[in-house]
Amino acid sequence: MSSDADKRIAALSPEKRALLLKQLRQQQAQQGKPARAPVIASRPRDGSPLPLSFAQQRLWFLDQLEPESTLYNIPLAIELKGELKRDALERAFTALQERHESLRTTFRTTEAGPEQVIAPPSPLTLDVVDLRALSGAGLQGELYRHMREESLRPFHLTRGPLVRASLLRTQEHEHVLLVTMHHAISDGWSMGVVIRELAALYDAFLHGRPSPLPPLTLQYADYAAWQREWLQGETLEAQLKWWKEQLSGAPDVIALPTDRPRPAVQGTRGAKHFVQLPREVSEAIKALGQKEGATPFMTLLAAWQVLLARYTGQDDIRVGTPIAGRNRAELEGLIGFFINTLVLRARVTPELTFRQVLAQVRERSLGAFAHQEVPFEKLVDLLQPVRSLSHSPLFQVMFILQNAPVSELVMPEVSLRTLRVEAQTTKFELTLSLSDTPAGFSGSIEYNTDLFDAATVERMAGHLEVLLTAIVANPDAKVGRLELLTAQERQRQVVAWNATCTAFPREQCVHTLVTAQVERTPDAVALDFAGEQRTYRQVETRANQLAHRLMKLGVGRGSRVGLCVERG
């Protein structure tokens, strides 16, 4: 592929690029030419069973094991400043619910397995909490308490609803809108659809106009049925063959140096350390990727895998990454659980240059995008990794590069700004999540608090920034020699920790100093080796015995005595 073509591909949106690459890969004979996916058709709503997608079925199964888990809650908090009309907002939510069946979906268990159940539309009323009596720190504390508690309130997949919305009124013309969905009916992309369509509907209803949104020709249940029918037989086997070649033989567990041992059962308690890369480093990362025909996603992923290789000492690194799963235009405007997880493997040996690692990551990413339809659940079934409750299968570390922030949207006379909802849970041991902002790449490292201390992850974030700075300065440097330590850490390790000089009377001989120490602490341990210890009194006694023995053999002052002893 020419350099010019590479750059043109790198400039495409992730979804268009994935679709193009999928079509190119399907034309290659060595990939087995997987069959072209059929058109997704709308299914009649005549009472026939509506199957779950593969991803939904996995969450349904996990919910059977742990029904009160909040691990798959997707919280969103939006600050609204301006003259908000609550009735128009409630009408907008009601219209959104009527428009998207997924917002009215629950699940039931039958003899044939779980099914989707779509309830008829019904008016939505926002729960309103008035916090105007509070101010300052008291208001902020109460606000964040509500945000935290709402994000941790469980859903019931069989009863529903699987979406909640409430409004916190903080001042006369300031509100915070809390929207929480269960992952079984939504994903990160869907939250963007929710906010975008809510804004359009609110604008229309506020001014007495009908909905401006075109009718949907498909619903998520149509996609789930299509996926079940298409991904089977030869089609599925051709895709699985590629993944098996890519992932077989890799280590089951990444050997991260944790602050505490992995517990027998993996915990889900999590926290976040926020990351902000300098703008100049961020721009240099993009420029390097463009020169190499790689996207920012590929360049940052390669750096993350280099950092993990340096931390673990392993040269075979598998990282999970979510992909939108919307490589068909008719799926882009739907709310639903389309996201899939890809497993990206890299061989990172110390003698490789970063440019070589990036070329490898680029090639494997392109192949993964071309075979992205295979559900993660099928990969687990295919590869049969060692199952353990102490870690997740196939990978334990994730990388995410967000593409479409929703904070730039506006409503009439109301400004919108998304607020951070502090992580209380985590699915993986480490997750680096970044977004491309005007100030540079920013985001967070989410971590499992059963394994890592906050200070450890803070140091890791510093190492990542130093590593990226070194990479853009010299991408041809060997990755085993790229700088990791911050200036403060280097000063501490190279200078402070090596400041071991100790003042002692230089006019005295060593044996005189030892004798003085014996007089001060005769029973203190002087030597400790191979499980045996000697006190200062014992050392002096043995030394005197040896000295008298040598004197009897004729050794005097100034004589040279050879030593032949074992190392110790």
UniProtKB/TrEMBL annotation:
<dbReference type="Pfam" id="PF00501">
    <property type="entry name" value="AMP-binding"/>
</dbReference>
<dbReference type="Pfam" id="PF00668">
    <property type="entry name" value="Condensation"/>
</dbReference>
<dbReference type="InterPro" id="IPR023213">
    <property type="entry name" value="CAT-like_dom_sf"/>
</dbReference>
<feature type="domain" description="AMP-dependent synthetase/ligase">
    <location>
        <begin position="516"/>
        <end position="567"/>
    </location>
</feature>
<feature type="region of interest" description="Disordered">
    <location>
        <begin position="24"/>
        <end position="48"/>
    </location>
</feature>
<protein>
    <submittedName>
        <fullName>Non-ribosomal peptide synthetase</fullName>
    </submittedName>
</protein>
<dbReference type="GO" id="GO:0003824">
    <property type="term" value="F:catalytic activity"/>
</dbReference>
<dbReference type="InterPro" id="IPR042099">
    <property type="entry name" value="ANL_N_sf"/>
</dbReference>
<feature type="domain" description="Condensation">
    <location>
        <begin position="50"/>
        <end position="492"/>
    </location>
</feature>
<dbReference type="InterPro" id="IPR000873">
    <property type="entry name" value="AMP-dep_synth/lig_dom"/>
</dbReference>
<dbReference type="InterPro" id="IPR001242">
    <property type="entry name" value="Condensation_dom"/>
</dbReference>
